[in-house]
């Protein structure tokens, strides 16, 4: 009996010991990614400042690109240039843009978006100022080519905006950036109408360099992309940036530790042609090339239509007779016709068209998706190119140009957003850079169609523009990835 009692006590003691030594499972520490932080912090004052400063890069880029369109008639007369020589200026600008788009894209994925953006602005402002002192046509072409090299880095501003914006705001805020391009275009046309007739085109270039110089000083208020910092392993810098944004927006950070994989291999061209992105990349390149061809074709064609009166009924018969008589009396081997005040007004009205479809474009991007919206606007662009062949009045010409500018601007809006969203952080800048580079091939060809072929065969030039737009519409409709509502990818 005593033995039994001892055994029962022993069993009870073991049970007590077992219950006392049982430990609760350890709690897992919370973590979050940059995407989580961006979505948690939300939209606020930081993003408004980001939108204004990075959006203003579009003002500078538009002024530098549109400058060629308003200066072309003046340098044609001053240096007695042939049609191909005038077209070559624009082509060489975009050649520089094409080469350095890839280079800046590679460097931005490896060394940072902010640094490349700053370098590109310093480069562009320096060579733009030098252009105003060009002693000859050859120097003018060379220096404008250098400006094109610098302008190619301005796309990093869009990438920085894209990487800081919450997902649901990208489809609304990025298309609104078109307002800045419009402002730059209107500003250079307005300045040209006042400055060129009074103090000359050289002072126009000097004045046009001022916004870029001012903007360089504002870059210090915008940090490096947090997504880029974590991809390089600089988590502390990314965390400090996100905390600063949260404080500025009067918001809170997500709980836990910031964790992201370190991407050792960044900015490799081979990644764009990886099996996952090969079809997307090739179709994006076709679309970028076609959109740029159409966009700069419209801009340069507008100037040519006004300068050469290529559309019937755009001026009165009396004005046409005077123009013909003046041409016969001129001994110049080239066509020399300066813009009249009415021509500048027409360019301003058609340029305002770039913002006309922005509300519709925003709705289409957010409700129909990027692919379908782009295919519709590209199809409409093809149609309006053909409508330019209709014999119409000056008001009719302005109306067609207005709609064309609105459509080509909507095309650019959509493809910019799509390209920035479809590629992961490790190759986003390179994806934008190579797309921008291919885009400039279209821009390089456009001057020879708008300024040379259009003089020989007006309908032939319009059919070529229209056909390219149809190809782009089909390519957009068949893109394999839709980015509407999709979070930005960090790795492929």
Automatic annotation (TrEMBL):
Residues 50-484 form the Major facilitator superfamily (MFS) profile domain. CDD domains: MFS_SVOPL (cd17442). The chain crosses the membrane at residues 48-74, 86-108, 179-196, 282-306, 456-479. GO terms for molecular function: transmembrane transporter activity. This is SVOP like. One of its GO terms (cellular component) is endomembrane system. Belongs to the major facilitator superfamily. It comes from the Eukaryota. It is a multi-pass membrane protein. It is found in: Endomembrane system. Signal peptide: none annotated. Keywords: Membrane, Transmembrane, Transmembrane helix, Transport. It comes from Canis lupus dingo.
């Amino acid at each position: 009996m005593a033995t039994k009692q001892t055994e029962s006590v022993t069993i009870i003691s073991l049970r007590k010991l077992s219950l006392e030594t049982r430990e609760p499972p350890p709690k897992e520490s919370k973590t979050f990614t940059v995407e989580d932080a961006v979505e948690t912090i939300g939209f606020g004052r930081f993003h408004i400042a980001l939108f204004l400063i990075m959006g203003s890069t579009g003002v500078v880029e538009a002024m530098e690109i549109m400058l060629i369109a308003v200066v072309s008639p003046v340098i044609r007369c001053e240096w007695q240039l042939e049609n191909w020589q005038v077209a070559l200026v624009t082509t060489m600008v975009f050649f520089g843009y094409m080469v350095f788009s890839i280079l800046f894209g590679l460097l931005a994925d490896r060394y940072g978006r902010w640094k490349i953006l700053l370098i590109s602005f310093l480069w562009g402002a320096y060579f733009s100022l030098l252009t105003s002192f060009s002693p000859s046509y050859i120097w003018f072409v060379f220096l404008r080519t250098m400006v094109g090299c610098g302008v190619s880095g301005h796309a990093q501003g869009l990438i920085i905006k894209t990487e800081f914006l919450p997902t649901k705001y990208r489809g609304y805020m990025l298309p609104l950036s078109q307002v800045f391009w419009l402002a730059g275009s209107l500003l250079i046309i307005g300045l040209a109408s006042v400055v060129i007739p009074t103090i000359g085109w050289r002072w126009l270039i000097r004045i046009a360099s001022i916004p870029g110089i001012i903007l360089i000083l504002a870059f210090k208020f915008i940090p490096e992309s947090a997504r880029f910092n974590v991809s390089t392993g600089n988590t502390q810098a990314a965390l400090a940036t996100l905390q600063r944004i949260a404080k500025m927006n009067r918001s809170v950070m997500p709980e836990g530790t910031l964790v992201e994989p370190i991407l050792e291999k960044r900015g490799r061209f081979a990644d764009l042609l990886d099996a996952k992105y090969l079809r997307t990349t090739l179709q994006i390149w076709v679309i970028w090339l076609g959109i740029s061809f159409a966009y700069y074709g419209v801009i340069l064609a507008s100037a040519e239509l006004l300068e050469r009166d290529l559309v019937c009924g755009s001026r009165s018969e009396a004005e046409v007779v005077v123009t013909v008589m003046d041409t016969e009396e001129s001994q110049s081997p080239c066509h020399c016709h300066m813009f009249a005040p009415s021509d500048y007004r027409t360019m301003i009205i058609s340029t305002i068209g770039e913002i006309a479809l922005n509300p519709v474009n925003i709705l289409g991007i957010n409700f129909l998706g990027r692919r379908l919206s782009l295919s519709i606007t590209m199809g409409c662009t093809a149609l309006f190119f053909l409508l330019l062949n209709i014999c119409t009045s000056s008001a009719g010409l302005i109306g067609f140009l207005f709609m064309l500018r609105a459509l080509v601007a909507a095309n650019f809006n959509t493809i910019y957003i799509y390209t920035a969203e479809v590629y992961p952080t490790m190759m986003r800048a390179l994806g934008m850079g190579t797309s921008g580079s291919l885009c400039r091939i279209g821009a390089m060809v456009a001057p020879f169609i708008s300024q040379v072929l259009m003089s020989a065969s007006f309908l032939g030039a319009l059919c070529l523009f229209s056909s390219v737009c149809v190809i782009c519409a089909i390519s957009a409709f068949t893109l394999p990835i839709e980015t509407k509502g999709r979070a930005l990818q960090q790795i492929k």
